[in-house]
Amino acid sequence: MLAVFDRTDAALRIKVHAAALGFDLCGIAPAGPSVYRQHLLDWIASGQAGEMHFLQERFAERADPSIYFPGVRSVISVAINYHTPLDPAPRGHARIARYAQGDDYHEQLKKKLYDLADWLREQFPEAETRCGTDSVPIMEREYAARAGVGWIGKHTGLLHPQIGSWLLLGEVLTTLDLPADQPMADACGTCTRCIEACPTQAITPYQLDARRCISYLTIEHTGDIDPELQSKMGDWLYGCDICQDVCPHNRRPPASDTAWLQPRTATNSIDPNAVLNWSKDDYHQFTRRSAMRRVKLPQFQRNARIVLQNQEKE
Ligand code: B12
Ligand code: SF4
Ligand code: SF4
Question: How far is CA 145 from CA 71, 72, 158, 163, in A?
């Protein structure tokens, strides 16, 4: 006799296994098309995506997971806490966003997602899977919110009431029809701290003008940077954490004990003059197995020059 597929039991076992693999949060969302398709389309059409043409190039897949993965029924959304201890940057140093201070999460998280997907297919041989993090053409935040992993804050990041927003997202898409979790209520309330603290005024509630965001300018943008924005970029060499640092839900987040996420240097920052003097080898050494490899040497040196200019004005 064929065993009956118990959806509730399957969902529970998936969550228990995700926790055993080291994921801090796991939820399940139905894989239906994006509810925010038009929002994404308007955002791109208005130019706010800047040079990130990859968002437009795979738009159809991004707006509907069944185009990316025909037959998909459920999105298992997972998150890992990357709140690692950081010493304040010494005076004169340039800052690096927290998520990039350990090993490259694209590689590390992907390994774990493959483990989860392999386990799923072992347990449920009828299941097909696809998995990924960041570079997959999926609106990861939207599906994580749908899966009840957290809510989307005004700064556009996903937050969890106990863990805050220091969360990296990944997902296993599957053809299994799993029971969906309940989305969480928005708990931003009347708070507007992230909007006020953003030095470049990149945030309007629930929308980000990437062209003004320091994370975009330091990581994704390749050419010269508008002088008006340069002067607001402060001492950020790579990425920016200001809107997360000021969020009241990040006041007392639990510390991450994941070994590969721990910062590589004691200072979590670097002297911008050293960056200006980097040889190709120095650059390769610094960015080895790091998410920072996305930024090429000329961009790093452009960012370092901006930090030095801003520090001279202090
Ligand atoms: C492009 C991109 C960027 C761009 C643009 C960011 C942005 N806000 O759009 C730039 C380079 C600026 C960037 C910066 C950062 N990023 Co980024 N980025 C992405 C990427 C690849 C695509 C995001 C995207 O599609 N943006 C377009 C906008 C329109 O879509 P969206 O942000 O997903 O928002 C949708 C939902 O919010 C939905 N929605 C749901 N509920 C609601 C409610 C309302 C009212 C509205 C209007 C909309 C809405 O509507 C939107 C359209 O679908 C994702 C990975 C992925 N595949 O999703 C990572 C991702 C979003 N980034 C991530 C991170 C960590 C960062 C940084 C913190 C890195 C840093 N420290 O420098 C910053 C944060 C800046 C910020 N305030 O968002 C994480 C976020 C994790 C989290 N907890 O939310 C992701 C999910 C990568 C990952 N796998 O962990 N990023
Ligand atoms: S990451 Fe920095 S620049 Fe971008 S929205 Fe947040 S505070 Fe503003
Ligand atoms: S700072 Fe305030 S408005 Fe912004 S995400 Fe956090 S709670 Fe929401």
Answer: 22, 18, 7, 14
